[in-house]
Every structure is written in C-alpha cells, then in structure tokens.
Amino acid sequence: MAHRPPEMAAMDSSVLKPSCPGLYATTILKADYQLRDHDETIYTPAECNSLDFNVECHLSTAFVTCKTQWMVPSKLLKSSANQGKNSCTFALPMDQKGIVTSISAKMKKMHIQSCVVPVADTGKFSGKRFGRNGPEPCPVHPEVFAIAIPNVPANEIVDIEVTYFQPLKFEDGAYIFEAPTTLPKGALPQGAQLKDIVHIMTTVRGARPEPVMVECKSHPVSLVQAGPGVTQVMIDPRSNKWGNGNYLMRMPVWSPSITAAAVQQPSPKGPTADTRAPFIISISPPDPKSCAPFARSVFFIVDRSGSMTGKPMAGANQALLAGLSSLGPQDTFNICAFDNLQEYLSEDMVPASPENINAAKGWIQGHCTARGTTDILSPLRAAVAILSKRPLLGAVPLIYVVTDGAVENEREICRYMQEVMDAPPPEGLMTHPRVCTFGIGRYCNHYFLKMLSQIGKGLSDAAYTDERVGSQMITLINASRTPVLTDVMLGIPGAGESSKVEVYPFPVPDLYIGAPVMVAGKIQGGLPPAMSIKGRLASGEEWESTIPVAPDLQNNVLSIPLDKVFIKERIDMLTANAWLTNNKSAEADVTALSLEYGVPCPHTKLCAFEVDPKKSAEVEAAKKKGGAMKIAKYAVGGAAGVMVLGALAGADFGNVGASLANVAGGIGDLGSVLGGINLPAGIAIPDIDLGVCGDMLGGMCGEICEPVAGCLGPILEPCGGCISSVGDVAGDAVGAIGNVAEGAIEVVAGILD
C-alpha cells in the first residue's frame, strides 16, 4: 500500500477546510494515499483586508450577509499551492442545512453576479468561463460552498458579498448562531489586528414583546439598541479581549414552564397576489428541572446493510450506545438491526434497567455489523406491532429509523405510517408512535426520511459525511429524548373559510425539551387579538394556554420581512402540492415564489455570471424587480458564460441502485437542495417506481434524482375551533418520477371543541 507523502503526514488538518469566507488557492489531493478514501482540498488563504457580517436571527432562522475584501499576492497565484494558477476559489464554510441565496465579486475590470433562474432557462448555460465546470479545480464538500473565480489580478482588492440563511441550532435551552470568523494562518495582513478586520452586527427578533436575551462569550459585544421583541448588538471595537475564533451567540428560551407567543405583520401592500397577513407561533419548552417528562418506549431500528461498512456503522453504533445511556428507569426499549433480514434484541419491549442496557450494548457489538441490502418497511411494521403488544402506561412510543440507503417502496412506507397515525391509538397507548429519522450519506432519500418523520410527528436529521454520523445522530437523540407536550393543537377564534388559513408544518409536531416548536402561516385579515394552544402533558392532563397576538410593524433595525422567515417551508409545501397533483399551474406558482424571494427550489437554480462592470447597476436594478430575469443578455459570453451553482450540498431523492449495490457514500456532491418536507395528515402516498436498474452485485447504477419535494399545506376551515391534525384527502394515486398521475386533493380541517 502506498505511503502518504511526508508533506501530508505533517500537514495541519485545519488547511483541509476553509475557516472563514474568503479567497483561497486550492490544491486537490486525490484519494490515492493510505487512510484517505476520498479527495481532499488544501486551502491556502489570500490576504484578508476585512470580514464584515450582518446577521438577522429571526426566531429559529438566521439570515446572513457577509461582505469581505481579499488581496491575492502574485506569489500565491503562481505557487504550487494553487492548481488553478491565475484563478482562486471563493469558499464559504457553512452548516449542511444552510442555503446560499446570492454571491457577487467585484474587481476593477470584472464583476461576477448571481441570480435565481428557472430551470427551464438553464439548458444552454455551459459555464465554462468559471465555476464548477471551469478548468480550475473546485472543492466538493457538503459543508463548503465554493466557486472558482478566474483571472484574479495579483495584488488587487477583490470585494465579495455572499448571502445565505441557516436554521439555528438548539442546545441546552438556547438557540445558537455561529459565524465562521476564524481567520486562517497567513490571512491577517502584517501589522493588522483582528479588531481592524472582523466586524459583526447581530439583530435578534423574538416572538415575545420584551427584548430578546442574548449571550456572547466568544467576543466582547456592546448593545446597540433593544426594543419590543428585538435586541441588536455588535462586536465592541474598543476591546482587544478577543482572539481568533468563530463568533458564537446564544439566545436562551428555557423558563420554568411551557411558554408560547404569537406575532404577526400586516398584510403586504402593493400589487401582490397574496394579501394574507403572515404570522409565526412559537412554543418553547421549559427547563427540564421544572417539568415532569413522559416515560418513553424507545425502539431503535438501525441499518446494517453492506453500504454501512466502516465509519457509518461505527458512528451509528456510537450514537446507539449514547441513546441507550439516555434511557431512564421508567423507560422501555428494543433494538432491530436490519438489512434485507432483521434481528431483534427481544420479542418484546425491555425495561431500561442497568443490566438490560449493558446486555444490549454487548448485543450491538455482535449484531450491528454491516452486511446485506436494505428493507425498512418490515422492521417498521414489527416495531409498531411490538410497541402495541404490551404498552407502557402513560409512555410516549418513539421509533428511531437510521439508514444510509434508498428503497423502492418508500411511498408505501409513508402510506403505512399514515394509516397508523390515522387509526385510533392501540388500547393502552396514550398516543401513536412517534417516528424520528436519521439519514446517512448521499444515497439515501433524505426527503423520504423527512416525510416519514413529519407523518410520525417526530424529528429528522442527517449526516452527509462519515465523520458527522455519530455526533449528528447523538444530537437528534438528545433533542427528542424528553417529550413534554404531545398532540399539539392551535385554536384561532373566528377563523372561517374566508380566512384562508395556511399553516406549516402540519400536523403541528410535539414539543420536546430539546426542540421548540415553530409554526408559520398566513391568514386573510390577520389573527385575532388572542388565540389558544392545547396539548397533553406527561400526567395525562390537558394543557391549554391563551396567548396574545403581538403586532410586528417591522422594527427599523430589521430588513427581513416576517413572511420570508419561513419561506423555505412554504416553498416546500407548494412544491409538494404541485408534485402530488401534477399541477403545472401550481408548479409555476412555486417558481414565481422562488424568484420573488430569491430562494432556490426544485424548479429554479442559483446561477452566477460575469458582467461588464458598466452593466452591474443595470443587473442589480433588474434583480430588485423580481420575477424571471434573462441573465444571458447581461452575461459576458452570453449563455455560455452562465454557471449553474449549487446552493447547498447534501440531500436529494437518493439512489436505489447504489443502495442495492451496497455502495458506501459519505460525501455528497454540491447541488441545489430543498430542506424540510412537511406532509399533512391524511395524505396516503402510493408506491413509486423509480425506474432504477439496480444490480445487487454490481456497482452503482440508477439515477440520482433531482430533489423535488416539499409539503402540501392545508387550507384550514377551523370555524372558531382548534386546528388539528385531522385531514381528509382524496386524490388519485401519485405516480413516479416523470409519471405523476393527476389527482385532486382536498384537505378539510377538523373541528374541535
């Protein structure tokens, strides 16, 4: 076996990923060396003159604008560290769930712009001038957004602006925002100080009327202003008491009890087709010391198919052991290790005693080893049956599904789980089984897994690199380990058919200690002054709270309107509606919404193109008008000069052929991606024929499908009652990719006293 070169053996691992947004010389290391099973990129930074972040954290989502200036020394451009020679790579480290919405670069004689464009307009875009298909090597990593920029002048300032948004992490009772502000070694100009280079302004919006509490231990910050529902801080330029590291801000929400709040903005003005008022409802969990958690009956279903070999299996087992350690004496559990066959720890649920947990840890070592192919439906059916056999009184049944594969009967699985949720809970069970899902790598269908968890009122997460499997899965288990409010319902007095209420996600998920609930929506005429929220506590008692609806007149420190905060969820919802019904008109509506807000969707792409500096202002003016934009007429080189970019790396509809062939796939290619998939109750999903020529003994085959998924949001008719997860959906069977049957879908809301 070949040995790693001496320079690699001594390499600082920090050079294998960019630590802040900026210009880098890059060298691609092929997967030819010992202990390296995939390509790596060495990032050598240019010189950073400024790194400015303007951040708006709206409830659980951060909108980020980063403006940065870099100078590329001629020595770096021509060095062996830069395979692109006179070109450099702009690279942005980001969370795997983030989405880039725009990128621009300006030099004296060349400007690069970007725009969201309908897929139908991208057929002639070859993008050979720069970007991913150019002659320069460009990194491929699911946690890095990258674009190659050609002909960078030596020793000239390059101004770059990138915008993106990402969901905030929730840890230990607080939302957390992290900005990649660690300057790599060699990026700081000689004689400069960090405070002269790095600047951050953070504005935080909450749903409650008081100023939002913020904490920042990474950098000294000073208060700019605070008002109802808003707090704004900035890095204190007078202080030298901070080092070179990422900016971390916490926004605590835990309190002694469950708290809820609602905020809405007035209906949009001007010529818009949607005149409904946007609103957001926030439900925050209590401090775990202040509440009685539900007992749990936990069933772990873990994929051990051949493609899980190596790090994925090791990471899944690590998280599984952590999940067992999280069980309390009041809980019960079971484990299924599955491939095309299944092995169970027990034929029944097992009390979570120390002896049983230790025995289960030994069982994992002998049974959770990679082999075989993938069958998800059989163990899921068995888990539901075993949980129903001898239910634990008052417990919440939880099923964790962990897989790295795609299967052909995914819609049958969703249909089965929907039938389980629609039927009355089995005798002795307080509620239906909750399903949490975890996807590994790029071959599993992440959208199917999100659908399954949405139907099952659980949580969903994923890891797109092998190294992330253990930590991300532990995060999912920790988030869902303590349910405190189940069967959540919303009550909007006076809301009738004319209100055209739209909410997402739907049904409303359960509230966990580690996962607050955010519900966004729109309503004609706005919400009433007060509304109610109901749910079930661990004691079996009903919890109800009447909350005021606070008006948000869009404080002057905020630039992101409320209806954009959850625009991704809304786009997902409308996309699924168009997909399920094969409604081309609805598909056009999704495209128009994507173009209006500048957020990529399955029917649009983020594209970059070089423009003549004299036309930059004209391009900006055209983008502000919204709608479709013929960017080829502005691009240098016409359509051939437009590059289709990836807005995010990671999830898509999976690859059944690769799964059948047991291809291990950790790192996914960059590609434009949708996020959460929200499927309302009542939608029964038929089988899907992916048309994949799978060969169980061969290499990867089949197509990686374009990510087309989302959620159908219900038009609710609560008539003054509570909006519940009761739906009645009629429709024709939905076909497969490229063959979707037309169907009529009607959602009727339940009326609850």
List the helices and strands and how they pair.
Elements: H1 6-9, E1 22-29, E2 40-45, E3 47-58, E4 61-71, H2 74-77, E5 88-93, E6 99-106, E7 111-118, E8 144-149, E9 157-167, E10 169-171, E11 174-179, H3 194-197, E12 198-205, E13 221-227, E14 230-235, E15 247-252, E16 259-264, E17 277-284, E18 296-303, H4 311-325, E19 332-338, E20 342-344, E21 350-351, H5 354-367, H6 377-389, E22 396-403, H7 410-422, E23 434-440, H8 446-455, E24 460-463, H9 469-480, E25 483-491, E26 501-504, E27 511-512, E28 517-523, E29 530-536, E30 542-551, H10 562-565, H11 567-581, H12 584-597, E31 604-611, H13 616-624, E32 642-644, E33 648-649, H14 656-660, E34 670-671, E35 715-716, E36 722-723
Parallel strand pairs: 3-12, 16-30, 18-19, 18-22, 22-23, 23-24
Antiparallel strand pairs: 1-2, 1-5, 3-4, 4-9, 5-8, 6-7, 6-9, 7-31, 10-11, 11-15, 12-14, 13-14, 16-17, 17-28, 19-20, 19-21, 25-27, 25-29, 25-36, 26-28, 26-35, 29-30, 31-32, 33-34
